[in-house]
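Hi support team,

I've been running sequence recovery on a batch of backbones for a student project. Most finish fine, but this one hangs at about 90% for roughly twenty minutes before it completes. I'm not sure whether the input is malformed or the queue is just slow. I've pasted the structure tokens below so you can try to reproduce it. Let me know if you need the job ID as well.

Thanks,
M.K.
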């Protein structure tokens, strides 16, 4: 295993492309549209994918929220499946991520990102959606659903982080400057090593390499410093703005889709062994949080990790669509 990772690191260093700060140069399977708006005294843009129904339209819109190390486009298999099932699908990139603006200065909050997303949807004349969210997107979707409950007919969260409050469990705080220095060191090899261990329970499929290359190319490109800075600010938001205590206030039908072998936990790399043993246990977290959320349904993917929609896309998408269609 170590030898394979070293070999991967050496080849990745030679082959990693250099994408622009808004992923200029990456080969997208869909057109990327841009929403321009004003926030915090500056003009910003959010890139987003808007796919119309390929099958018989059902009159519903699914909004897909990406995770911290993901983009709207990483939902590709799910976008296609939902479109075939009759949904209009919107997959935005949040400010600071992927195809969107990387501000020099921005006060990141889930409230702010939720408002940005709400403005995007209003510009498209969309007033009611099914929210499907993954990883950090689950924290954002929870905040969005709390702020705009009348606009969310269904909430589906796929291995959301934020099912626990890491700092309350003893994970030490890390400054934005420390996060920044950490993010500057991001490489294709470090991304793959982390994802293979934490997301995929030691497994790996060749199709994951595309997304590693995407992130590595963004982090290696001409905007690498501003990409790393925004990433540092986002990590601070994630760590210091828990949604865990507000799950009980969700009003809409909510489904948790949980890969039970996931071990993702912010700050686990600097936590003590005692604390590390207590965090990131999705086999238990899914069950615990399902008890906190009114009108909750728990669907478990036994043995899968942080991204079941990428591990077993056909099984996941069928399960998701069946669940959404129950609403």
């Amino acid at each position: 295993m170590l030898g394979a990772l070293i070999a991967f690191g050496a080849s990745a260093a030679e082959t990693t492309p250099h994408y622009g700060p808004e992923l200029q140069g990456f080969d997208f399977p869909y057109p990327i549209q841009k929403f321009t708006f004003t926030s915090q005294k500056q003009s910003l843009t959010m890139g987003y994918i808007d796919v119309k129904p390929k099958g018989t339209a059902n009159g519903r819109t699914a909004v897909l929220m990406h995770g911290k190390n993901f983009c709207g486009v990483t939902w590709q298999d799910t976008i296609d499946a939902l479109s075939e099932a009759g949904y209009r699908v919107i997959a935005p990139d949040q400010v600071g991520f992927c195809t969107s603006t990387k501000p020099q200065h921005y006060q990141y909050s889930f409230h702010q990102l939720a408002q940005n997303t709400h403005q995007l949807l209003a510009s498209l004349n969309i007033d009611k959606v099914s929210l499907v969210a993954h990883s950090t997107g689950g924290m954002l979707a929870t905040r969005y659903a709390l702020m705009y409950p009348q606009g969310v007919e269904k909430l589906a969260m796929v291995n959301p982080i934020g099912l626990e409050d890491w700092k309350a469990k003893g994970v030490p705080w890390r400054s934005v400057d420390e996060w920044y220095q950490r993010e500057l060191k991001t490489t294709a090899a470090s991304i793959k090593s982390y994802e293979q261990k934490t997301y995929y329970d030691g497994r790996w499929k060749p199709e994951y390499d595309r997304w590693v290359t995407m992130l590595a190319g963004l982090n290696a490109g001409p905007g690498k410093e501003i990409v790393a800075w925004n990433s540092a600010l986002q990590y601070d938001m994630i760590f210091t703005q828990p949604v865990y205590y507000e799950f009980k206030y969700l009003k809409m039908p909510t489904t948790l889709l949980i890969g039970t072998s996931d071990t993702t936990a912010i700050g686990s790399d600097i936590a003590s062994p005692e604390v590390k043993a207590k965090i990131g246990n999705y086999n238990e977290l899914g069950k615990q949080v399902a008890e906190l959320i009114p009108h909750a349904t728990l669907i478990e993917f036994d043995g899968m990790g942080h991204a079941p929609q990428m591990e077993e896309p056909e099984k996941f998408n069928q399960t998701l669509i069946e669940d959404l269609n129950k609403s």
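--
Follow-up from support: It reproduced on our side and the slowdown came from queue contention, not your input. Residues 2-324 form a domain with the Rossmann fold fold (CATH 3.40.50.1820). No action needed from you.
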